[in-house]
Structure formats: C-alpha cells, structure tokens
Amino acid sequence: MGNKPEEEEEFLLNHSQNSTKGGVKTIPFIIVNESCERVASFGLQPNMILYITKFYNMDAARASVLLNLWSALSNGLAIFGAFISDSYIGRFRAIAIGTISSLIGMILLWLTTIFPQLRPLPCGQYQLDCNAATSTQLAVILCSFGLIAIGAGFVRPCSVAFGADQLENKRNPDNERVMDTYFNWFYASVGISITVAITVIVYIQVQFGWQVGFGVPALLMVLSVSVYLIGSPLYIKPKPEGSLFTGLFQVAVAAFRKRHINVQLNYNDDSYYKAPESKLLEPSTDFRCLNRACIIEDPHVELKPDGKASDPWSLCFVEQVEIMKCFLRVLPMWSTCIMLLVSFGQPLSIYQLLTVDRHITPQFEIPAGSFGMITVFSLTIWMAFYDRAVVPLLSRYTGLSTGISPFSRMGIGLFLGIVGTTLSAITETIRRNKAINAGFEDDPNTVLNMSSMWFVPQLALYGVAEALNVVGQIEFIYSLFPKTMSSFAAALYTFGLALAGLINSLLVSVVDSTTSAGGNTSWLATNINRGHLDYYCWLMTFLCVINFLYFLAVCRFTDQHHHDGRSSLFPDAEEEHSENRRFHGA
Q1: Where are the transmembrane segments (predicted)?
Q2: DSSP notation for 266-314
Q3: Beta bridge partner(s), residue 365
Q4: Is the pLDDT of residue 505 over 50?
C-alpha cells in the first residue's frame, strides 16, 4: 500500500518484458470462455426443477429447496473464488480450475440422462409409491451441481478482471478509453450469453429432450476449456497480491488482540499507523473499538526498520480501519435489498406458465422456462432509458448527476417489488380459480383458456425494480469506498444473491412443512391447482412490505452526511467512480 512508485515501475517493466503478451488479441479467448460458461450454466437453471421432479421423484417444494441451495452455493463461492484467486493462485489458474470443474459437473449431469441406473425408477401404474433416489444416485447429481457451482464461483468473479489485466497499460494515453470499450464489450457479451441461455438452450431442452438439452451445455464447456487453454501462451498472468477481504479480517483480528487499549484516551497523529501517501491521519470516532487496530503501542516491536508493520494481523493502516467502518455502515442499507432478491425467486412459477396458453402463433409456443427473458429485457431497456432520458430530465430539478439520490432509487425499486409480488398473487388467484371452475383441480397438466400475457406485467416490474434498487445500492456503496475497492459493490450484491437463495430455501421448507401438517395439502404442492401458491405470493408481499418499512427506518437513522451519497472519509470516491460505476451496475 505504501510502495506505489515501486509497484508502477514493476508493472511497466513487466509490460515491456511481455510486449508480445496481453493486449486485444487475448480478449476473444477470455470472452468466449466466460460466455460459454454463462450460456451453459444459465441454460440449465430454468427447466431444472422439471427434470428433478420428473426423473428423481421429488415433490416440487423439495426440488425448489435443492435448486435454491445450488444457487446460494454458486453465488457464495464467487466470494470465495475471488478471495482465493487474489490471495493465492492468481486469476489465470482460478479461471482454469473453474472452467474444468464446470465441464466435469456438466458431463456428470449429462450422464444422468444417458444411464437409467443413475436415476430412480419412474413412477409406474403398478407402483403404489414412487421410488426415492438412492444415496448413490443423489450423490451423483449433487456432485454435478457442486462442481458446476465451483466453476461459476471461480470463473465469473475473475474473468472481467483478468481481461482488464491484459489491456491495462499506464503508459498508454488512451488506456482509459480502451478499458471503457473493453467493459462495454464484456458486459454486452454477458447480456447476450444470458439471452441465448434462456431462449436457445431452454428451447433445445423442450424440443429435443434432456439428453440433447444437457449435452449442448457440456459441449459448450468443452469449447470453453479448449479456447481458454489455447490462449494461455498469450496471457499476462499477474501474481496474486492479496485480497481486499484479507484487510477486513486483519482489522478485526488486530482490534481483538489489542482489546486492552483504552480508546477513550486522546492519541496524537503519530500514534496511528498510516500509509505513506494516505490523506487519513487519524481514524474517525465512530466504531471506536476498531481504532485499536491502528494504534502503535511499541514502535520498536510493531514496526520494522523500513517502517512497515511487523505483523499485519496486529497493526493495520488507518485506511484499513476506515474501510472496515465503511463496510459496517453499508451493511444495514445493503440488507434491505435481500428481500427483494428473495421475491424474484418464487418457487413453482414455471408450473404456472405450463398451465396457460403460451402460443405467439398457432405454430410457435414460448417455452415456459424462457419467460425470464421478460425480466432481463425490462431491466436492460429501463437502464438505458433511465440513463439517457430520465436522468437528464431529473437532474434539472434535483441538481444531482444521477437524477435522484441512491436512497430514492432503492426505495422506488423496493416499492415496485411490492407491486410485482401483489400482481403475482392476484394473477395466481385468477389462474387457480379458472382451473378449479373448469374442473381441472386434479389435472395440473391441462392448459387453461388463459393467456400467458397475464404474467408479463409482474415479470417486467421485477426487472425495473431490480434495475432501480441494485444500481442504487451500487451507487451508494461506491460513494463510500475508495476506488481501490470498486469491486466491493459487486461482491456485496453477489453475497446478497447467496443469502437470498438460502432464505428462499428456508421459506419454502418452512411453508411446505407447516401447511402440509396433519395431512393437509401443502401451499406448494406439485399440483398447483390443489395447492395455494397464491397464499405464498401474498406471504411474500407481506414480507416485502415489512422490508420496505425496515428500509425507511434505515434511511431515517443513516448518518446525515451520507444522505447525499457522499462520504467524508473518501471525498474523492464519487468523482473517481462517476465513469466506471455504470459498468458494475450493468
């Protein structure tokens, strides 16, 4: 942290020595690797609950719990993957390990469609009860899910940074423009990949069956591994320099080790361990217990002759302490977005869509698993419209460069989430009543005389709500942290997705076990005409309302000097992030 001139000199030296490595020629290899991984993994998700319930004889609620845990694991491992790559193995190896792991996992999953021995016997007319999967059969499919989750956790957080490593050249006067172009192309490829996954891969599964539908993602991963490794001789492979998360752990450990220090005493500036070029001379007064981590008790013991800390787990920079405090300040506001993410993952939604008319023309029917594209399209269109049309208009009246404050964006997003879950409850009530009135209470596979367009408004609202709330969250976090931690916003969002998956699993499990007690039909029964998915949607609406009230309380008690989205600790943060935050927002 205190050797920037030396680091820059080493960086320039590496670039001069590796003039034949890196550059634009490496970007296609990296983007193809990332795109194939996303198409393959995202293409598996929409219809997976149908495969689990049909071929593993699970009820829909249990299958939903399993898939939510899989989602939580994939997102949680992204934090772990970023930490391991930054601290120990480097981004090149992390991506290689992740890509190969995904390949093995998808081959295992594909094999379950080939060999009947890897699945339980199907429920037949002569069987009173369906056979449950054996421990070996469950182990195979769970192993495939785990390997795919490890792959996603190692590839996704590292790919964008690894591509930036190939292009960043501080001697190039056009470096910033080159990086901006790269980020644009990278995130465009992410959007295209998700679109292809939810449309093409899902369509293949519906039209050609599970063997082909799971075989194509496995082939894509073969391509991903091959292309990435072919480009290996061309890559610049920076050595791991340590993770930003390590600094947070160091502050907590150092403060605990020095818990005997009385922080109420007045210490002069020389008593604090500061980075040579840091503008922070002393820690702030809030969260004083953490200030112990940067107090120098004995310079002869705690400092080396060159002024560096002898043990970074006992003595930390003032800046590290303040970043830890920023993290603690962010947590309450960040936690308000988790319930919104939970509401997006409502179980059994694909079963609703299977019972309505999805025809666009008499010959073409939209696959039920592809309706998630409505949310993706509404999110993308709204972000472009908001950035180009709404922000300039609102800026004239509010004087804010972002149109409205991050708090307002988050609040509007949460409110639209409530409207979306309300619409989902109303729509399911209408659908269920139609099914019962038509005499299909015991036949959940019959298509009703009801258009799938009933589901479009709620799915579109989810996209707009996510665009407003998540980008507002990222702007708020960016305004508090220095540029060196610009990736922290994306990391927190990813961790929020992991928590949302865990909460969804818990909610589904509790609701299913509670409502099915005493022999009653579960709200989340596989036969959704007998269940009460509408009640579950109303429960989600109620929880979203409670979360909105919690958000208002957090806004009320958030420190006033953060109310305009700026931080007194890092006053240049907003200026530094004004250009690049939109990329992370995408």
Answers
A1: 65-84, 96-118, 138-164, 185-204, 210-230, 333-354, 366-386, 407-426, 459-481, 488-511, 533-553
A2: ---GGGB---TT-S--S--STTGGGGGGGB-S-HHHHB-TTS-BS-TTT
A3: 359
A4: yes
pTM (predicted TM-score): 0.87
- Quick check: 419 and 461 in contact, CB under 8 A? yes
8 Å CB contact between 480 and 425: no
Confidence (pLDDT) at 15: 45
Structure tokens at 233: 């001789």
Query: How far is 23 from 19, CA to CA, in rounded Å?
Result: 9
Tell me how far apart the alpha carbons of residues 64 and 220 are, in angstroms, rounded to a whole number: 26
pLDDT at residue 584, rounded to an integer = 42
Confidence of residue 35 (pLDDT cuts 50, 70, 90): very high
pLDDT in tens, 356-393: 999 988 889 999 999 999 999 999 888 888 888 888 88
Whether 561 shows a pLDDT value over 60: the answer reads no
In this predicted structure, the answer to whether residue 270 has a pLDDT above a threshold of 90 is no
Q: CA-to-CA distance for 490 and 393, rounded, in angstroms?
A: 28
Residue 57 CA, distance from chain mean position: 30
Counting other chains too, the contacts that 91-97 makes at CB distance below 8 Å and 24 or more residues apart are 91/158, 91/161, 91/162, 91/165, 91/237, 91/238, 92/162, 92/232, 92/235, 92/237, 94/154, 94/155, 94/158, 95/33, 95/154, 95/155, 95/158, 95/159, 95/162, 95/228, 96/228, 96/229, 97/150, 97/154
**pLDDT of 123:** 77
115, exposed or middle or buried, with CB in 10 Å at 0-12, 13-18, 19+?
Answer: exposed
- C-alpha count within 13 angstroms, C-beta hemisphere, residue 193: 23
Give the torsion through C-alpha atoms of 416, 420, 421, 425, to 10 deg: 150
486: DSSP letter: T
Query: What are the φ/ψ torsions at residue 180 (nearest 5 degrees)?
Result: -60, -45
Q: Cβ of 414: how many Cβ atoms within 10 Å? A: 25
